[in-house]
Amino acid sequence: MKISLTKGKSEGPTKLNAFDNALLDAKIGNVNLIPVSSMLAPDTQVIDMPELEVGAMTNCVLSHQYSQTPGDKISAVIAYALSDRMGCVVETTGINKSRRELLDEAKFMAEYMMEKRELEIIEYESIMETHTVEQKASVVAAVVYHNPIRH
Question: Fewer CB within 10 Å: C terminus or N terminus of the chain?
Answer without folding.
Answer: C
